[in-house]
Amino acid sequence: MPVSPAARAEAERLYAALRAAGALPVETDILQPAEVLLDLYGEDIRARAYVTADPLRGEMMLRPDFTVPVVQMHMAHGAEPARYCYMGEVFRRQEHRGPRASEYLQVGYEMFDRTDPAAADAEVFALFADLLAPLALRAATGDIGILMAAVRALDTTDRRKAALLRHVWRPRRFRALLDRYAGRVAPAPARARLLETLAGAAPEALLADAGPVIGLRAADEIVARAQALLDDAAHPPIDAGQAELLDDLLALADNAPAALERLEDLAVDMPAIVPAVERMAARLDALAARGVAVETLAFEASLGRTTLEYYDGFVFSFHADAPGLPPVASGGRYDALTAVLGQGRSIPAVGGIIRPGLVAALREGRA
């Protein structure tokens, strides 16, 4: 579906405003190497991206967003500190998300600066809030880093914590795993039968009796997976109190100052989240210094858990009142991504995107 002239004009206006704010304009290829995104997100990314094959370059993806290629560019030869802006089409498959467009414009801003992360978070959020102020959107904030810190501090196996962290961005799967690890639900019948079978003989013997190995997994991988299932079943459940604290954290939604008070209360029993909570307090101070009305700013502890999974700290979004619309703008902090793509180097980074098509529709009363 072609981009409308109104959306294109709105994109140009926003792009010019970001350049005026001091961002260096950059461009990225529409076709991106699939290997990088698959390494970051696993095969799940295929359900959300358009994948094709190039005879010389191998498997490629139509650009699902700009952040990853901009981070790659900066980590390869960018100066510090740096601010970038961009404008262009992105492509997302939308089979299960209603009538949303699968090709649409994004305008974005990315900031790489290690001097004061709280001030950088506030700068990006305040810039977006000012640009979108005429639309009277509802702003929401969150912090994925608080949830990740709470998961890492659970008194359970590293394997369980890794699984929970991997599924932070898949709320239903995360909930199912937490309930199982906490002993709140009985194993599914098929899983129970499998565990009973595995308990009756060594995995190697069972595999030998099963006949030829069919599929992509090697025999040693199958044995290792079977042993992991047995080890997990033998480990005691996560303490009920710890699981309840995590439930309280996931359900937290309030104005930012009240949420901060609640998080400080939770930190008494979850000291591992103290550094992340202190970062949130510093961020609120920085936002207030930029004129943001933090006393009415919404905070949702689960915000950002259904986006591309590179955010690991502060997250934000701006929403219209019209039901069914995606966020008009969204963004957050992604420090860990720079370490993954930096080949041994890293730098704190935060950024966000605006959907100019939605901005244009809201201005014209079409959304």
Automatic annotation (TrEMBL):
Residues 18-327 form the Aminoacyl-transfer RNA synthetases class-II family profile domain. Gene3D superfamilies: Bira Bifunctional Protein, Domain 2. PROSITE patterns: AA_TRNA_LIGASE_II. Transmembrane segments: none annotated. One of its GO terms (molecular function) is glycosyltransferase activity. Signal peptide: none annotated. The keyword Transferase applies. InterPro entries: aa-tRNA-synth_II, aa-tRNA-synth_II/BPL/LPL, HisRS-like_core, HisRS/HisZ. Keywords: Glycosyltransferase, Transferase. It comes from the Bacteria. Pfam families: tRNA-synt_His. Homodimer. PANTHER family: HISTIDINE--TRNA LIGASE, MITOCHONDRIAL-RELATED (PTHR43707:SF1), HISTIDYL-TRNA SYNTHETASE (PTHR43707). This is Histidine--tRNA ligase.
